[in-house]
What does this fold into?
Amino acid sequence: MNEREMKMQDDPVRKLFSGTKIKAGDNLKYRIMQQIETESALSVKKSKSKSLFPLIGNMFSVFGVMYALIVLVAIGVVLVGGVEALSSLTFFVPIIMIASVCGLFLMISVYDDKRRLKHFKEN
It folds into this structure.
């Protein structure tokens, strides 16, 4: 059945029900509109500018932890091996590992935030 045939079948039913329709009074319309405006004024409005905040917040936290760990490793290497040890492999391997893990964690958290935001917009 296409739309036209369904509309033709619904026309007699619509005509029958159109005579029984009760019109709402102006007072009722006013009260309903007043209720809608009150609810919309009291509801929490979400700003779209916060969509960038999770990314910046994640960057600050991940990079903050990463640089703190790098400083701790540098202090440990200097205390154990002296200043010359900062140019050795015992310093660069942990730094590369820390940077890699923090970068991977940042990538996963950004992906998760985007997925969560997409899921939130669908609902």
The chain has a mean pLDDT of 83. The chain has four helices and no strands. Residues 77 and 88 are 10 Å apart (CA to CA). Helices lie at 3-18, 26-42, 53-81, 89-122.
